[in-house]
Specification:
single chain; Thiol Ester Dehydrase, Chain A; 6 strands; 18% helix
Amino acid sequence: MPQAEAAKAPDLAMARLGQGFVWQDLSVGQCFRTFKRTVTETDLVNFIGVTGMLEAIFIEEGYEGGAMPGRPVPGALTYCLIEGLILQTMIQGTGLAMLELQQKIFAPVVVGDTVQAVVEVTEIRPTSRSGRAVVASRIDVWNQKNVLVMSYTAKRLLAGRAPAGD
């Protein structure tokens, strides 16, 4: 165990592990790939339970009125899983608000699919307040077969570095 005098106390000047990007660290055209996430039966059951999306295709295994094989999941669940991956990395501690969202779903996601996203920064517009900026991005969500399952655009309010002297 290190001696007390050798230990370093937390200091606000130290870089924080897991801290997201401030808008000044981003540029239009910059792209990122998220981690992958496999959708589980537990994800589906918990999501439909908490949201009340108790539609037969989500709650009944092998629903005879279903239009496809497998156990489909709500598009909202796919979106939420990807947003969780983005939040945990790109905007952790710097994302201030989701301002606008437009979404298109192209293909189903079923339990057992693995999804990931490509995030492209499409616009950065600094605001006049507190060094913040509105950052727009396009998020394309792909399954394990490289099929585009969802695409959405998002405008978020992101924090910036404090100006010198603040």
